[in-house]
Write a structure and sequence with these properties.
- There is one protein chain.
- The protein is of the alpha/beta class.
- It has a domain at 443-515: P-loop containing nucleotide triphosphate hydrolases (Rossmann fold), CATH 3.40.50.300.
- The protein has helices spanning 2-8, 25-32, 42-73, 78-127, 130-135, 138-180, 182-188, 191-229, 231-236, 240-292, 298-339, 400-407, 430-434, 451-456, 464-473, 477-482, 500-514, 530-544, 579-585, 588-602; strands at 361-368, 377-384, 389-394, 415-420, 423-424, 437-441, 449-450, 490-491, 518-522, 548-552, 564-569, 572-577.
- Residues 1-15 have low confidence and may be disordered.
- Bound molecules: adenosine-5'-triphosphate.
Length: 603
């Protein structure tokens, strides 16, 4: 059994997925702020509609008991009885219309709030810095924007109004019961705490047990899946017995979870019926006694029996609502955690626009660390002149991409300054910096849409002709024209119908269209074969013309033409100069080139 437990440790149910959290007023008030824009429009309509239908439901039993029974029937007044029937029918009509309007407006309100919240969260997440995305998986962000917000839907659609309605209904009924007969009211209301217990505690207990069942089932599924996939290995190592023991452990836990949940569920209905029965017995016994003693009329007794049947619904809903609130606490905690996240790269209030960027880049004693533990760049000073093509080379992890990230201001240096045209990037507006810099990455991201739209992403206001021209310059139009619908071919997200090289040509076109002052090519030519490479070398030269360009490449053949090459190691510059100068020096660069040639020779 100990072994089974060890095995189970592999399938942890993490705290991040907590389904419920304790109730928290501050959080609830913060959530309710999203209703504020509708407090003058949708909310009042829904509340009035709710009040109308609730009042009808509250007064009909009194009219039936105290007027129909005690007056009309007692006096055999048929005329009055007919009027009562007509009156109640009209009231029910109001009730019907009230319900209709309440449900309609409550749904619109809920949808609006969910829409606002999702929009707010998405635009906030979009503004967060790279550092945030470094530490969060896309999946976990997706879950918060979709599932967590969805789980608040019920709270905002029915929750708020239902709570109001149920509180009005319950307190109204209690007041009426006391007005009709305080003694009988006291006796009958004993069942309310029992009902509360059933609807909150017992129900929550049941729900949690079913959650455990689901968790156990998913563990069982994962284990089964893994077992079947690894069957050959299991058999090859003759581990069937061990495996069967593991399986038995998970299977037993699953079985126990089911038993527990079914046992608790089975208690629910009998409990509800029992509490109703207790109420009925009290009403019948004590009510009859009071009638005989002349304390209450038959009509009062009738009203009481109507009201008794009306208790369960609001109490049950309030209990359910409370449980839902605890679930909303967990979801909103996760949502607010993201909303409270501030971008690491902040814009100063008096930030300046870098107009007509020239592209002169300077690193002034820059230090940078992604986290507290490791320093990616200890102390770097360098200069890239306007219009220069600079190549960054060095082993994996030497800091090439980090330098590019600092130029685009995806991160701020921990110390020192990065300047463009003499302006410290931390004093400039983010938009003015990034809009004049283009980054072409090795893994080109293709959005779902047409090829045309994907290239136009570089400059949304570009005409079709300009898009085509850009594609032509980088030599991408050949393959685009060959696609079934040319520029209007739809590519799915990530562009699976295109080869890696084609995707890269596409990103060149995108960058050219954007016409940036600074161009960063991060391993951008790695997926292009040697033949295509030669073909686009010329195009690349066009792309680089008149701009400052930073090329990051492992394949040293692509950077031979660069004006200057920086050789990096551990975030420091080992040497810099043109290809010829560095080859002559026979230093680190020379070694790198030599080792690449040896590798090629060996192939
Ligand atoms: N987002 C990140 N979070 C934490 N550390 C990072 C992150 N990105 C890079 N690093 C670390 O910073 C150092 C420099 O990385 P960088 O990506 O700049 O290297 P590189 O020279 O571009 O490498 P490669 O050639 O493999 O792309 C490495 O030690 C790397 O582990």
């Amino acid at each position: 059994m100990a072994r089974n437990k060890k095995h189970l440790e592999r399938f942890q149910y993490t705290e991040d997925n907590a389904i419920e959290k304790p109730f928290n007023w501050t959080q609830l008030l913060r959530l309710l702020k999203y209703v504020r824009p509708y407090t003058k429009t949708l909310l009042p309509i829904a509340i009035v509609a709710m009040l109308v239908s609730t009042l009808v439901r509250m007064f009909v039993p009194v009219i039936i008991g105290r007027v129909a029974f005690d007056v009309a029937i007692a006096d055999e007044n048929i005329r009055l009885l007919v009027w009562i029937v007509i009156g109640i029918s009209v009231m029910y009509l109001f009730n019907y219309v009230g319900n209709l309007l309440r449900i309609k407006y409550v749904n619109i309100l809920g949808q609006n709030v969910i829409y606002d919240l999702r929009q707010h969260l998405f635009s906030h997440v979009q503004r967060l810095s790279h550092r945030f995305f470094d530490t969060k998986s896309a999946g976990s962000i997706l879950v918060r924007i979709m599932n967590d917000i969805n789980s608040l839907q019920e709270l905002f659609t029915n929750g708020i109004i239902n709570v109001l309605m149920d509180i009005v209904l319950l307190s109204g009924i209690i007041v009426l019961l006391f007005a009709l007969s305080p003694k009988l009211a006291l006796a009958v209301l004993i069942i309310i705490p029992i009902m509360f217990y059933i609807s909150t505690k017992l129900r929550r207990n049941i729900r949690r047990s079913w959650q455990t069942v689901r968790i156990e089932q998913s563990k069982l599924n994962s284990h089964l899946n893994e077992s079947l996939q690894g069957m050959r290995i299991t058999q090859a190592f003759a581990q069937e017995n061990e495996n069967a023991e593991y399986f038995e452990g998970i299977n037993t836990t699953n079985f126990q979870a089911w038993n527990d949940a079914s046992r608790k569920s089975a208690m629910f209905r009998p409990f509800v019926e029992m509490s109703n029965a207790v109420g009925t017995v009290i009403l019948l016994a004590y009510g009859a006694h009071l009638i005989l003693a002349g304390d209450i009329t038959i009509g009062t007794f009738v009203s009481f029996s109507f009201f008794l049947g009306m208790f369960w619904e609001p109490i049950s809903r309030l209990g359910q609502m409370y449980n839902q609130l605890l679930m909303a606490m967990a979801a909103s905690e996760r949502i607010f955690e993201f909303l409270d996240e501030q971008p690491n790269v902040k814009e100063k209030e008096n930030a300046v626009e870098i107009m007509d960027m020239k592209g002169h880049i300077e690193f002034d004693r820059v230090q940078f660390a992604y986290d507290d533990k490791r320093i990616a760049i200890p102390d770097l000073s360098l200069e890239m002149k306007q219009g220069e093509t600079v190549a960054l080379v060095g082993h994996t992890g030497s800091g090439k991409s980090t330098i590019a990230n600092l130029i685009s201001r995806f991160y701020d240096p921990t110390e020192g300054r990065v300047k463009i045209d003499g302006i410290d990037l931390q004093d400039a507006t983010i938009e003015s910096v990034r809009s004049q810099i283009s980054v072409v990455l090795q893994d080109t991201f293709v959005f779902s849409g047409t090829i045309m739209e994907n290239i136009r992403f570089g400059r949304p206001d570009a005409e079709d002709e300009e898009v085509k021209e850009a594609a032509k310059v980088v030599g991408a139009d050949d393959f685009i024209e060959r696609l079934p619908e040319g520029y209007f071919t739809e590519v799915e997200e990530r562009g699976n119908i295109l080869s890696a090289g084609e995707r890269q040509l596409l990103s060149f076109a995108r960058a050219l269209l954007a016409d940036p002052r600074i161009l960063i090519l991060d391993e951008a030519t790695s997926s292009i074969d040697t033949e295509t490479e030669m073909r686009i070398q010329e195009a690349l030269n066009k792309l680089l013309e008149g701009r400052t360009a930073i090329m990051i490449a492992h394949r040293l053949s692509t950077i031979r033409e660069a004006d200057r090459i920086f050789v990096l190691q551990d975030g420091k510059i080992l040497e810099n100069g043109s290809h010829e100068e560095l080859m002559e020096r026979e230093g680190e660069y020379y070694e790198l080139v030599k080792s690449q040639f040896q590798m090629l020779d060996a192939i």
